[in-house]
Write a structure and sequence with these properties.
The protein has about 240 residues and is α/β, with parallel strands linked by helices. It has a single domain, classed as LmbE-like (Rossmann fold), CATH 3.40.50.10320. About 40% of the residues lie in helices and about 15% in strands. It has a seven-stranded mixed beta sheet, sandwiched between helices. α2 runs antiparallel to α5.
Length: about 240
């Protein structure tokens, strides 16, 4: 299977690693193009380990988080786009929305992945969802001739949130990431400011691997990532 043009949009610089790092690695290994957008560095609310250091500053945290994200993106073979919009709260104004729209126009992605629309524990994730949803629609228009540049519509997926049962997340698609899991593990290890999530998402990949085995009967699946498909799938046969 050949790769695709894949876009992953995260509210914070590490979001793509935990929730879609395996899919990104799979895609680039298959010859696809992967772009990851970090709307913020997560410098205020997602960098707990860094704020334990004496005389820490917000700019220093940003610089570290950028470096970590660049290393992780390189490991999974993705281009990293950092928008530096700030976090807690993340604010996506009209100018930022246009920047995200322009990324979509440039990449012309076949698949777009972002956060679910609901997260009772994180104020930034729903903002990222809404921005991605709007930018995707603005880039493709209404499917008719428009007064602005448009690109073909993409498939739209949500990646798994930290607490799926509280976010209305219903997995419709499991992706086997067994072959790329060690790459994902190294990418997770690069995100040192959030070490506490490394074990959690290792275990989660194992749980989803178990679910994928049950669905398919394929005993070779060790690890998987879960996604919820938003756009309908168009096929000739079921």
């Amino acid at each position: 299977m050949s790769g695709v043009r894949l876009l992953v949009v995260g509210a914070h610089s590490a979001d793509f690693v935990w929730r879609a790092g395996g899919v990104v690695a799979n895609n680039t290994s298959a010859g696809g193009t992967s772009v990851v957008v970090a709307l913020s560095f997560g410098e205020r609310g997602e960098s707990g380990e860094l704020w334990k250091l004496p005389e820490q500053t917000e700019q220093q945290v940003k610089d570290i988080r950028r470096s970590e994200a660049e290393k992780a993106a390189a490991l999974v073979g993705a281009e990293l786009v950092c928008m530096d919009l700030g976090d807690y709260p993340l604010v996506v104004d009209d100018a930022a929305l246009e920047r995200l729209r322009d990324v979509i126009r440039r990449l012309r992605p076949e698949v777009v992945i972002t956060h679910p629309a609901v997260d009772p524990f994180n104020p930034d994730h729903p903002v990222a969802h809404e921005a991605t949803r709007r930018a995707r629609l603005l880039s493709s228009g209404a499917g008719v001739a428009s007064a602005f540049e448009t690109v073909p519509p993409s498939q739209f997926f949500l990646f798994e949130p930290h607490q799926p049962e509280l976010c209305g997340f219903i997995p419709t698609t499991f992706v086997d990431i067994t072959a790329s899991f060690e790459t994902k593990r190294r990418a997770m290890e690069a995100m040192e400011a959030q070490k506490y999530l490394q074990q959690y998402y290792t275990e989660r990949a194992g749980h989803r691997g178990n679910h994928a085995r049950k669905v398919t009967g394929d005993s070779s699946i060790g690890y998987a990532e879960a996604f919820q498909r938003i756009t309908p799938q168009v096929v000739s046969l079921l």
